[in-house]
Design brief:
By secondary structure, this protein is α+β, with helices and mostly antiparallel strands. The protein has helices at residues 15-31, 61-68, 79-82; strands at 2-10, 36-42, 51-58, 85-94. This is Antibiotic biosynthesis monooxygenase.
Amino acid sequence: MIMRIFQVVIRPGKETEFSRFFHETAIPLMKGTPGIVSVLPGAPRPDSPREFSFVMIWQDLASLKAFVGEDYQSPHIDPAEAELVESRVIKHYDLVEA
């Protein structure tokens, strides 16, 4: 399985707008995506008020590529969130099951 960690930093003043997008659009979209085993959305904390994240567990690389395309190592964002996001980071790992 593949663990995909997606983190974004929101533009100052856009936190409320992005939070609405995150909860109403992004989380339901990811939870309903074929190939996703688990989705762990992360909302900001007081020490990082503009940072949101997703930890996603994918069945396999083929499932991930079916969703984002061959360029799975680039952080893809919905056009609706593009103007709200200052920066984004994506990382991939092989899941280690304990």
